Structures are given as structure tokens and as C-alpha cells.
């Protein structure tokens, strides 16, 4: 019997080894060919693809269409599964690939019917765009088919990859709309709840246009609102129960991106310098893909920067004469429209009379399960939300992404511009989630404008649900000559960071789609003005700036609150205060004081929100998220400093009681979660990287192989170095056009999406450590030639 057990065990071990070897072989077979020749009928002439030690390709072609083909080829080789997820995410087709776990995402995104909209966009593209997209798609499919085995992810999922189509590239662009815009007008809807539940004066105070932290480039400042008096709003004698956290307040991991430019008058070379660090969700592989795209032919082209796998464009970078960079503009690109019922069922009122609501039925395929039908009702303004916080109000979503003209391949126009002015002129033709486009050229000129389509909104308030049954809503698109623009400001400096960048008429054109707090923009601005001469190295120093400028005043407040009387017989509070006294005013990975101050601010802010917003909860239900914007910092700071008694509920004896109890809540939370004391609660413990492969949760035994290391990270929200476990700089670069060899560019994870590739994590450590890595690809270690058949 013992021999039988031993033989059985050996057989199991042998079988496991054989299966492992087979699986490993299959995985290796899906690695791309990097050297030699591949003959293809998709080209007019031969193309070379050289890769450096980090896997960054330099693609050299004789014409733009061949260059598009080869770009698609390397994307298909290195990133096809990522591209597949991206197109499926936008189309609401993930469940077909991964099963019921993705069904809720599919329902949410299928609401927008982006696959049908992509078909509509496709017929509007001009001949140049269509030709480049067509050859790019051919390259993607040939790159995929050049692999000896399907990408390893499909092996794990027991699925076959589906070929790439032209509409899929448009879906990749739509996926960026989903990531960068408010896709269902949630902020407008939430603000509408507050507007209906609070006195108008109180609403205006709680939702200011900006704060003292604003750092607009035109130096405009919003008018500050004073605290409402007791005759306007009072909480005296009221008891307020704790509510669900405010979605925007409790989630302090707010999105952020930075870009700026300095003119040649501030540089030794006389060239402008452009810097960019676009902050997005972090995963493996990274959202962007580095590349150098060259044409050596009758028309020369040399593009360096980051591409987006799935589309044939350079998203940000330099063409040798002009560099361009992006940040999300946070303008008003989505509106919540109140749908007024008509006289007959399934009708609504519009300026043209009563119209019928159209109904579309979408079929969602689910792997291993029956398909699901999803009914979508639409108005002339957009689709109708089936669930809202107020069931008595029907809301349709009007979003620029639903309009055909909002999506183009206009980035192609940036490739050959020779000056900053030319780049600014191109901006209005670019169909993208509207971005702050910052440009600089080799002659030292700099500029800013909005890249993307800007709707013409009707007069009046648009930051809460509006009734368009009379006004009719958007009346077209802003003309190119009416786009806000800044060119060669006297200071020689331009900066954006998702906050308000202009005021007055220009702000009226862009609108307010929930701007970020201006603290980050202010810190960047001050960093740029601290020097009279700026270099490439200075750009990186500003990008990595993790000084706690914004939170410093909250630390001072805490030190005033934790008086000797408050500390008596309370060792935990004594320790808390000591850690504040000893703090380093930076969001370093080993910082304890920074973490405690940050958590105290969130806790105190939530308690104030609970009090001030309780009428919203009383009117719309106890589960209602309490709406608040990032600009809430203004009224909050007024409250904790002026301590108005009439705005304090009877839950607290005085304002110091609220603040001290906020300290105790932070202490108690850590006592429940840990048993080794406050001294060990570092920022890095809270801010540990979780840069993961999409399948690592499904195959946890492979997660150590698929994911990037769980490293403790410096940086936070209201500072240039925005960093959270799965959110941060998707790339960092700075470049002077025409002097690319002295620029730098790095990004998280690596070029390849294959864990057996040498390039899977190549360059990642430079990103973690903030080390400069070359803007240009390095020396070639692999060269693949795509041979044309003719």
C-alpha cells in the first residue's frame, strides 16, 4: 500500500511538472518576435522596429500609413489583451470575456451605447483619418497573428481573442471619456439635492466657485462667501445622526494631472520646456506605451512620447519643433436634464412640442450564462437614468461623448505643426475628452487652450439638474476663434492641474465640471516662480514635490486644539500631539505626522458635512450620499476657525469638542486596525502600491508574478506628486523641443504586457524612485524588419 501511495504521489508530481512545462511553453509561445524579418502584404515599403533595453520601439517607415501599420503591429504584439479589455470596457462587453463578475460594469457602460456611436463616428472621419486608422487596424491584427500562441491571458480564460476592428479604436477613445468625464452627471444630480434641501444662501456658501487656493493663470479669484447668520441657518438644539460618507469628501484620492510650460526667456537654450505628468488609474500594463515614430522619406517626421494602445496617435510628446502635454480640464461636459413628462405615456416635453421617448434594447453576452437584455430609453438630449436619488425626478444625461462630433483623430494634426500657435489652432479639431493643452516650441513660445469640443450651453446655472423643455439645451459647438487661449504670457510661465485656470468670459465658455482644489496648481505655480531660470532638472523637482503645503495649516490648528487640558490623563492624545510636533512637512513614505493630519482633516470635515447637510438626508433618505465638492475646503476652514455656535448641532458641547473627538476617532480607528501604536502608522503603510494585472485577483497564485511590487510610495493629493496605491503619474516627462536627447520620460510598469518578457517591468523602478530616464529610446538591442511583399 505504501508503495502504491508513493507511486501515486510521484505520478501526480510528474503530471504537475509536465503540465507546468506545457503551460510555460504555451506562455512563452505568446511572446512577440523581436528580431529578424516578417513578410506582410500590409505595407507599401519596408519598416524597421528597433527596441532598446526597456523595450521602447523606434519605428522607421517611409510614409505615414506604413508608420500607422507598424504602430498597430507593436501594439498588437505587446498589448493586445489590454486593448481588448479597453474596448470591451467602453462597449459594455466585458462579461462576454470574463463572466458575470463584470456584468454590473457592462450594464453601466452599455447605457451609453458606444459601439453604435462608434459606427456613427466612423463614417464622419475624413479620408486621411480613415486611411491611417484602417492600416493601423491591419497592423494590430497582423501583430496579434504573428504570435505563435494567443496572449497568455486568453489561455487562462479559455477564450480566443477577437480580431481588432476600426470601431474598436474609437471605443478605446471612448474609454478615456469614461475615465475623465462625469459619465452620468452624478455631480449635477448631487448638487441638485443640496439645492432643493438647503436655503439658497447656504447652498451658495457650501458650493463656492473656488477658494483662496485658486491659482488661475489670469490671476482671477472667486468672491468669498461669508458664513450665513443665525437668521439664515441654524442648527442650535438639533441632534444630527452620522450619515454615509460623502462620496467626494471621504474619497480623498481625487484624480489629478499636471502640465506646464516655461518660455525660452527663462531657459539657457532659448527653447521652451514642456512638462507633463498625467495622473490616471495604475495597472499592469500601464495605460500608455512609449514609442518613437519616424518617417524617413519625402516627408520627414520624428515623434517621441507616449501612445495609447488601440489608437494610432501620439497622445503627448514632441515632434522636434513643438511639444504638447495634457491635463483633464474638468470643464462642464455633462449635464443632468430634467425630463418633463408629456400628456401621453412615454412622451416628454421639448421646445418643439411633445416627443416620444425612444427605446433601444441591448443584448449583453455573459460567459457561461444566458445573455441579458438591457432596455435603454432615450430623449433628444440623451439616455434616461433608470435610478436616481429622487424617484420623483426623471433625469436624462446630456454628455459630449454622446455626440458624433466629439470624437475625431485630430491629434494627427499636431504631428507636423512647426510652432506653438499652429498647435493651438489645431486644438478645436481634436475630438477627445476636453483637455488643457499646453504647448511650447523650439523658438521659445508657449501657449494654452482647450483641446476637444466645447458645447454652447444655454444661459443660466448648469451645475445642477436643469429643465430644457423650454430652452432646448446645447445649441451647437463653440467656434474655434472663440476658444479661450493664452499665448506667451508676460511671466513666461503656464501651468494647469485640473483646477480652474481662467475666470470671466473664458470660464463661462468652459464651465465648471467640479474643479480640483487649487492647492496643487498653486504649489506648481509657486515652484515655477521661485526661479528666474529653469532647467529640465527643475521640472522633475517640481513633479516630485511632496511638500505638505496645503496640510500645514491643519497641523497648526491641531496643535492649538490639543492643549495641556485636553492632554491630561490621555496618553494616546499626548502621543498624537508629539507626532505632530515632530512631523516632517512632506508626504514621505515613512511620515507618521502627515498621515495623522490628513486623516484628522477628513474626519473633522465629515462631521461638519453631517451637520450642515442633514436637511438633504432628511428629505431624500438616510442612505443618501451627502453632496460636497473639493471647494468645500473654503466653508470648512471658515467653520473650524470662526466656530459659529449657531452652526453646531447639540451632538457637541462646542467646536473644540468636535475637533478633539475627531482626533479620538482617528486614534480609535488605528487602535482597532493595529496593535503596535500610532508611532508605526506611516504614510507609506497607507499608501502602498497596488499596481496589479487585471487577472491577478482571478488567479491569486500568480499575482506575485503578474503584479508590480507592493512598494511604499511618497506623495498624495494636494501637491504636485499625486500618488495613491492604484492611482498616480501614468507618465512623467519634460522636454525642450529640438533638444529631446536631454529630456526625460518614465512610466510605471513596463512596455510589454507579458510577464515573461524582459520588458514587463523594465523602467518601473525609475518611476518609483523618480529617476530621470531618457526621453529618447536608448541603443537598439533588437531589430525587427517588416518586409513589404511588393
Numbering strands along the chain, what is their spatial order in the largest sheet?
A: 1-26-2-3-7-8-9-10-17-18-20
Given as residue ranges, the uncertain stretches (5+ residues, pLDDT < 50) are 10-22
| Average pLDDT figure | 93
Strand percentage lies at 15-25%
Shape: globular
Q: What's the β-strand tally? A: 26
Instruction: Report Rg.
Output: 28 Å
**Individual helix count:** 25
Beginning-to-end CA distance, first to last residue: 70 Å
CATH architecture of the domain at 551-686: Orthogonal Bundle
Which topology of the domain at 551-686 does CATH recognise?
A: Penicillin amidase (Acylase) alpha subunit, N-terminal domain
Range of helix content: 25-40%
Highest CATH level, the class of the domain at 551-686: Mainly Alpha
Could you walk me through the main structural features you see in this protein, from its secondary elements to its overall organization?
With 790 residues, the chain is of the alpha+beta class. Among the domains are: 1-30; 551-686, Orthogonal Bundle (Penicillin amidase (Acylase) alpha subunit, N-terminal domain). The chain is built from 25 helices and 26 strands. The chain starts with a helix and ends with a strand. 50% of the residues are buried.
